Amino acid sequence: MSDLPPKSARYEQGMATRRSVLGGAHVDRAEAAKTEFDEPFQDLITESAWGHVWSRPEWTKRERSIVTIALLAALGHDEEVAMHVRATANTGATPADLREAMLHVAIYAGVPAANHAIKIVKRTLAEMEGTAQ
Q1: Are residue 22 and residue 47 in the same domain, yes or no?
Q2: Is 50 in the same domain as 74?
Q3: Is the pTM of this model over 0.85?
Q4: 39 lies in which domain range?
Q5: pLDDT tens readout for residues 59-118
């Protein structure tokens, strides 16, 4: 796309992890939407978030998924909450895990943040189950 240097091994690991968590279709859409303007940012998150953090062996993808959703909910990042809830199909985090995470959000980040995130989690899970109204 641009004159950026070749991708690092950490980037390649990050891309593999990103695909395993978010799914190939999601990553393909993100890659197709990438422009010269945001390519450096996409490379940064692929290498750092996915290559450095999500690829570490100390926690399972399920554990990272639960923590990520709780943090995103606490910070009010609604679209990212929904995206990571969809990713639970690949990470193994269960609705019960998400319920527990939202209880933690309520206590440590506030009831309004948890209340709002619970609506997003419920809606996204219903969409995933094909029961959304």
Answers
A1: yes
A2: no
A3: yes
A4: 8-58
A5: 999 999 999 999 999 999 999 999 999 999 999 999 999 999 999 999 999 999 999 999
At 73, which CATH number? 1.20.1290.10
Torsions phi, psi of 47, nearest 5? -75, -45
Across the range 43-52, mean pLDDT stands at 96
In a domain, 133, yes or no: yes
Q: What does pLDDT average to over the chain?
A: 95
**Number of Cβ atoms within 10 Å of the Cβ of 17:** 21
Q: What letters, b where the CB count within 10 A reaches 16 and e where it falls short, cover 113-124?
A: bbebbbebbbeb
Tell me how crowded residue 4 is: count the other CB atoms within 10 A of its CB.
10
Query: What domain count does the chain have?
Result: 2
For residue 2, tell me if it sits in a domain: no
